[in-house]
Amino acid sequence: MTHTDDTVLLDGGVAMPRLGFGVSESRDAHAAVAEALAQGYRSIDTAAVYENETGVGAALAGSGLPRSELFVTTKVWNVDGDRPDALGAARRSLDRLGLDHVDLLLVHWPNDDLGHCLSTWEAMEQLLAEGRTRAVGVSNFRPSHLRRLRSLGGRLPALNQVELHPHHQQPELRAVHAALGIVTGAWSPLGRGAVLGEPVLARIADRHGVTPAQVVLRWHLQQGTVAVPKSDDAGRIAANRDLAGFTLDGADLDAVAALHRTDGRGRIGPVPDRVDRIAS
Ligand SMILES: NC(=O)c1ccc[n+]([C@@H]2O[C@H](COP(=O)([O-])OP(=O)(O)OC[C@H]3O[C@@H](n4cnc5c(N)ncnc54)[C@H](OP(=O)(O)O)[C@@H]3O)[C@@H](O)[C@H]2O)c1
After folding, report:
1. Which residues does this entry assign to the site Lowers pKa of active site Tyr (predicted)?
2. Which atom from ligand 1 is nearest to the alpha carbon of 213?
3. How many angstroms separate the CA atoms of 1 and 153, rounded?
4. Dist CA 85 CA 53 (whole Å)
């Protein structure tokens, strides 16, 4: 896997911006995405379950930017579907987005039923072959889920988007990704704001003349992860991509590494293995 500060190459040679813009729980996704695009973001991360693909699509269309400059990710909710359901779900997402293809399509959560897992993944491969997406990946897959996909013998996901921030750094999963050539995507890259009050981040930020959020996002870039911070605020949307003017040194990186909570209590979202039960 190769990457620069700006992009990472997904399986199949698809270049993905390493800093994107998330819209889960956006107050107004149309306005937020329009602002993000105006500020220079080119990668937008949405999902069917966010129920804002129509607003995202309107902002993409309204931006006047050529499709080739945009990188759009959406996710199919696979918890209660099989192959036809996954195909239909992806096509409905494309209709809402007003696009004939997305750049990356993710299975939003793993499913522990092997047959179900296989049929959903076959649907993803079919959508890739049909040109409805340029790359396919997964989200919230643990090593056991990735091993299961590998045992099926087909294509591996290009990317696995998981909860990842200084309190929950996912070292074991990242090692599995590295071994399998899977790009690590970070959701809640700012820990939904919960990590930003850490005094050590304030000290690092002061030294570099930036904010704690910028330190955390710079840390993601230097770790090689793809981060998709969300904001509804124009000032924070701008600041979150203003990361070029400083670099974290070894001591900074060690200090951020020390924020990881090894007891798992840094996690803020659901445990992937349990999401079926949460959703049902
Ligand atoms: N695949 C999955 O299962 C999954 C799950 C969750 C999220 N995601 C994706 O990941 C994206 C980001 O995750 P997230 O929205 O949960 O969390 P996040 O990006 O870590 O944090 C967003 C929160 O931080 C605040 N914030 C943003 N920039 C800030 C800054 N510079 N300073 C202080 N506060 C700041 C935002 O408030 P304001 O809006 O007021 O700025 C918001 O409350 C989502 O939008 C979604 O696209 C994926």
Report:
1. 75
2. 31
3. 20
4. 18
How many CB atoms are located within 10 Å of the residue 29 CB? 25
Q: Is 108 labeled as ligand-binding? A: yes
Ligand 1 pocket by Cβ (under 6 Å)? 22-24, 45, 108, 139-140, 161, 187-193, 196, 211, 213, 228-233, 236, 239-240, 269
Please report the domains of the chain, with CATH numbers, ordered by start residue.
7-279 (3.20.20.100)
CB 111, CB 79: distance < 8 Å = yes
Task: Please identify which residue in the block is written with the tokens 């695009």.
Answer: 37
Per-residue tens of pLDDT for the chain, all 280 residues: 555 569 999 988 999 999 999 999 999 999 999 999 999 999 999 999 999 999 999 999 999 999 999 999 999 986 556 677 889 999 999 999 999 999 999 999 987 777 777 888 899 999 999 999 999 999 999 998 898 888 877 899 999 999 999 999 999 999 999 999 999 999 999 999 999 999 999 999 999 999 999 999 999 999 999 999 999 999 999 999 999 999 999 999 999 999 999 988 999 988 876 554 333 2
Annotated catalytic residue, options 33, 35, 42, 50 = 50
| 207 sits in which H/E element | helix 199-208
